[in-house]
Automatic annotation (TrEMBL):
NCBIfam families, sorted: rpmI_bact (TIGR00001)
UniProt keyword terms in alphabetical order: Ribonucleoprotein, Ribosomal protein
Species whose genome carries this gene: Ferrovum myxofaciens
GO biological process, one term: translation
Ranges annotated as biased composition (Basic residues): 1-16
Family: Belongs to the bacterial ribosomal protein bL35 family.
The protein's name in its UniProt record: Large ribosomal subunit protein bL35
Origin: domain of life: Bacteria
A GO molecular-function annotation: structural constituent of ribosome
PROSITE patterns in UniProt: RIBOSOMAL_L35
Record has Ribosomal protein as a keyword: yes
Amino acid sequence: MPKMKTKSGAAKRFRVRGSGSIKRSQAFKRHILTKKTTKTKRQLRGTAEIHSTNMGSVKAMLPYA
């Protein structure tokens, strides 16, 4: 059987931590930032963990992670 391919779009968006949880970057921080408050933009910094309901689909896209 051939090797499974990693979805390249998912590989750019997600990173697997040592504990097995998957981190992602926050959305809504790329453009149209003038109408967003400083507080909103500050709270969108950093990373978040993906929700447990999405864990199966993300792990299927990253078979070797």
